[in-house]
Write a structure and sequence with these properties.
The chain has helices spanning about 15-30, 35-50; strands at about 5-10, 60-65, 70-75, 80-85. The longest helix is centred in the middle third of the chain and has 17 residues, at about 35-50. With about 90 residues, the chain is an alpha+beta fold. Strand 2 and strand 3 form a beta hairpin. The chain has a 4-stranded antiparallel beta sheet with strand order 1-4-3-2, with helices on one face. It contains 2 helices and 4 strands.
Length: about 90
């Protein structure tokens, strides 16, 4: 598997905890060279910073590399939060 992509609803009524759990579990399944805590910490930062930049134009991608994967996210009010897990370069 090369890449994983997730579209996460944000805003009132969104189950961000469930989405976080799915992203972390999926990332853990494909990431080598990092433990669960390192992966979860990186995803926490990416999600928080991406959602924190929700009103920025243009959208800014937030990335963190852990082990053999790069986690990235960007957010907008129209698209919600888009998360990706890709091979590290």
């Amino acid at each position: 598997m090369l890449s994983l992509h997730f579209a996460v609803e944000i805003g009132r009524g969104a189950n961000i905890d469930f989405a976080y759990t799915v992203v972390v579990a999926s990332a853990r399944a494909v990431t080598k060279g990092a433990n669960t805590r390192e992966i979860a910490d990186a995803i926490t930062v990416v999600m928080a910073e991406a959602v924190g930049g929700l009103d920025k134009t243009p959208m800014e991608r937030v990335t963190r590399t852990v082990g053999n994967r790069t986690f990235s996210g960007l957010a907008s009010t129209a698209a919600g939060l888009i998360m990706s897990v890709n091979p590290a370069k």
